[in-house]
Every structure is written in structure tokens, then in C-alpha cells.
Amino acid sequence: MKESIILQNISQKLGISEINAMQKQMLEQANKKNLILLAPTGSGKTLAFAATLLKTIKPHNDSVQAVIVTPSRELAIQTSKVLQAIATGYKTTCCYGGHRFEDEKKSLSIAPDIVVGTPGRLLDHLQRGTIEFQRTSTLILDEFDKSLELGFLDEMRKILRRMPSLSRRILTSATDIEEIPPFIGLQNAQTIDFRDYNPVKERIEIHIVRSEEKDKLQCLTKLLNRLGDEKTIAFVNYRDAAERVYEHITSKGFHAGVYHGKLEQHERETAIALLNNGTFRTLICTDLGARGLDIDNVANIVHYHLPVSEEAYIHRNGRTARIDRSGKIYIIAGPDEHIPEYIKYDSELHLDNAASENTGVEIASLILSAGKKEKISRADILGFLVAKGGITAEKVGKIDIFDHYSIVAVPALESNGILQRIGKEKIKNKRVRFSLVRSPFRK
């Protein structure tokens, strides 16, 4: 694809009028055989390697030309969305656990140009014969520091054995690793290092919040009261803790969701969608969400538990101050907790019981039991709600369409009336179930 068309698609489909310096340099090096890209979380690495890839492959080659491996489902989904937006004329298929294998198999029946996926799911397809990489020339390892950890090494080794025609490798991450395994075959790679360009540390404020009690729930409650309706992600170290903190803050009336690895994929997708569309203001999250989550305009990161490592700290903080935005970091420290040396903070914050004024419009979400696989589009949903729901188009918020369901943001005060009016209606002559989510959300 010509660079001019790539840039035009980025502008028209993603609303980005000008790519940043890191993305420009990646495009300039598009013809290099092997590349390593190091750049902060939230700096636009996905767009950088996606644009670079499209500059060097041609559509409709009757085989998989490029494989992008990500360490998590969430990152696979985000990467696939970026590619599908800008890769006009190219077929992209996303493969990950937690949704229907048969949907992926059907999509793979005609070889896509680009496959995005997690190591386990890609290997599953290879072993079942539903995909083959015999003619694949390009491999991209996103978040390679995680993709090449011990837990993924065996799967990655088996995947690369199925790529005899591999001639190009691109590795990206926010953090480097000491040694890249020899089986990757990365020789004479050029490193593009933007870790210190427009550094995040200059765009964030870091505050220590002292909890008088070992149990930090009361301290978190006061902090969330202070933050008001700002979009916030609070990180914990354990799934059980995520559930406990979630139950506590929702019992106090906060608009919040929970996100961890024990939830089903559709539950995790729904939690992110409801945070993005404004139904939630807070997400309680394990480190599973520290990489790859596509969440707009996160104002605050709260470390309810101290991070287990500097790497975890970097990736958690990377959910805010993305691209050129600013953000605030709050570290809740218990009475006997020592702040690690790698955490450099600006001040200690003393909390009172005063609450910030909530200035936002209350949002609710309608969930429809039909999505992409049922050929439902955003235009279909918008037209249906205007025609049958008694709501103007201007009041319909963000519309998210997943494989077999969709989520629509609407004003909370009007949501019950809308649900009553559309309850027995069909959309595109299909009988669809409708439900309403108002915070607090639970599966």
C-alpha cells in the first residue's frame, strides 16, 4: 500500500491528522529486514508497526503474508481493530481464546492477508490444520518482552517452526529484555529507541496516599470521592482482591466495573466498553489490564496494591497520559509499607471526607443480543433507536459491536423508557433480546 494512502486512512478512519516522530521513523525504515521498536506504553506503537507492515505487503496474495503475535487477548483485539480501520483492501483475522473457535475457522477458510493472535490460539489452529504459515514472510512480536517469557517460549518455538519462508521480523515493547532467544532468528536488527522521547514522566503527577489502616478500602473510598467523575483505573495484585474491592466500592454507590482473568471474555469486553462509554467511572483491575487495553482518556491510575515490579509499574501507568495527554498516579501505601526506590513521587496527598462535585451526565448502556456475525452495523442500531426508541440521534452515545452482541450508551434518565419502547421490536427483521446495564454492573 502506498504511504500516502496509509496516511489518508489513518486520518479518515482514526482521526489522526499527523503521525508522531516515532511512527514516521518506523515508516522510513519499512524496508529494513529486522526491526526492534522500543517506545513507551501509549505512544502509538501499534499504529507504527501496522503502517510499516502495510507499506511492504500486497493484498490478496492467497496466503497469510504476516502474523502478529500478542501476549493477551485484549492486545490482539486492539491491534486487529487498528488494522481493520486502516488496511483497506486487506483481510485481517483475529484469533484468541475465549470466543467461538468456529467463527475463526470460518474466517480462515479463505486465507487472510494478516493474522493477529495469541500464541496458544495460533498454535491450536496450526495443529488442527485450520491455518498454515508456509508462505508467511513477516512476523511481528508485539510486547515481545512478554511474548518471549517462559510461559510462551515453547508455543512460540513451535509456531516459528511452521514458518519456513520467514524473512522479516519486527519486535516491539515498552521495556527491553537482555537476550532474545536464538530461535527467533533476529539477526542484524536495527533498534528504534523512543523510550526517552516526549517521556511520560513529564506528563504525569505522582502522589503517595497514606492509608492509616492496613486495609486500604476506606482510603480508596476517600480517594475516589475526591476524584469525582474522572475516569480511573485502580490496580490490585490478585483476582480475589479485585472482587473484594469491587464489591466494596459499588456498595458505596460508585459507578464501577471489575476486570480480571477469571471472567469470561465477553464479561471483560463489556467492562471495558462500559468504562469507555461513560457508564462506569472506575475499573478495578488486575495486572492483566496493564497491557493492551484500549481505553480512552484515563485521567487517573490508582495503585491499590504496590506493583510487584518496576516493569508492572511502568505498564500500569501507561494506561494514562497516552500519546500527548497528561495523567495522575496515586499510590496507596499502608502503615508499614515501604515505597520502592523506582517510584519517584511528587508529593504526599492528605485526604479528607469531602467529595468532588460530579459534573457528568449519567450514562446507561443497552445491550443487544446481536453483533457483527448477525450483520448488525452501527447505522442499523442508531436508526433503530431513533425510529423505535423515541430518542434523538444526538443523545445516542458510543456504539460498540462485538461478534454476537452490541452495547449502546444512552442517557440514564431516558434508558427505562427506551427499553420499554423497543422491548418487542425487531431490528433488521431479527428478533433481538435487549437488556439494560446501569452501574453498578455485575455479570
What keywords describe this structure?
Alpha-Beta Plaits, Rossmann fold, alpha/beta, seven-stranded parallel β-sheet, 20 strands, 443 residues, globular, helicase
Structure description:
Belongs to the DEAD box helicase family. Residues 26-194 form the Helicase ATP-binding domain. One of its GO terms (molecular function) is ATP binding. InterPro entries: DbpA/CsdA_RNA-bd_dom, DEAD/DEAH_box_helicase_dom, DEAD/DEAH_RhlB, DEAD_box_RNA_helicase, Helicase_ATP-bd, Helicase_C-like, Nucleotide-bd_a/b_plait_sf, P-loop_NTPase. This is DEAD/DEAH box helicase. This protein has helices spanning 3-14, 21-28, 45-54, 73-86, 101-108, 119-128, 144-147, 150-161, 217-227, 239-251, 265-276, 310-317, 378-388, 412-422, and strands at residues 34-38, 66-69, 92-95, 114-117, 138-142, 168-173, 190-193, 204-210, 232-235, 256-259, 282-285, 300-303, 327-333, 347-349, 363-368, 399-401, 406-411, 426-427, 430-431, 434-437. Helix 2 (21-28) packs parallel to helix 3 (45-54), helix 3 (45-54) packs across helix 4 and helix 6 runs parallel beside helix 8. It has three domains: 3-193, Rossmann fold; 200-349, Rossmann fold (3-Layer(aba) Sandwich); 363-437, 2-Layer Sandwich (Alpha-Beta Plaits), CATH 3.30.70.330. By secondary structure, the chain is α/β, with parallel strands linked by helices. The strands form four sheets. Strands 3-4-2-5-6-1-7 form a seven-stranded parallel β-sheet, with helices on both faces. The chain has a seven-stranded parallel β-sheet with strand order 10-11-9-12-13-8-14, with helices on both faces. Helix content is 33%, strand content 20%.
